Amino acid sequence: MAQFWQQLSEKFAQMTTREKLMVSFCGLVGVSLLLFSIVLEPAIELEQAADKKVVVAEKNIKSLKKDIKLAKAKLKGDPNQEINAQLQQLLKQSQQLSQQLSKIIENLISPSQMSQLLEKVLRGTKGVHLVSMESLTAEPIGKDSNGGQYTGYYLHPIRLEVTGNYFSILSYLEALEALPVKYYWRSFQYSVESYPKARLVIQVYTLGTRQEFIGG
Questions:
Q1: In what helix (H) or strand (E) does residue 8 lie, and over which residues does it extend?
Q2: How far is C-alpha 151 from the chain's CA centre?
């Protein structure tokens, strides 16, 4: 193997500057595609599946609350046993959907632990250097047409920027993916500044019941 790499190094050294640039560019495209297929694509699929569950639950809760409001209005105008039974059934369904959404939240890492976890994994990965890490403004999920909140949950994003070579950054991403806790990927930007140094900017997020970020 060492002889193989030595031969490749010798061939590369014999190339013209233009050929070296073309080879380097092709290599960058290759590793970027590999990074996408290994790390980002599975993460995106998991995120999309989880997001769909949250969106469906939110829509069902909104629809049920409208039905409950209508049922209450009918109950005031013409109270009878049938309407009361319908109202109780709607309330029960609303509670069940709220519990389903709560279970999704319970399986996620808390906002207070997210930044600590990102930094802990970073300290355990050689060759990766932290540039910045910041907690972005929390975003309420599930607003109605009047801007009112009806789910009671907030999205808490964190932006992380690091530098290092390709393999060090890949090791860091693999370590994050291997964590037993759950969170979601929001955005991913990888660029090579001056070979072999690269820069990675990612945003990850979790959900919480409080708007303000509670630091750990």
A1: helix 2-14
A2: 19
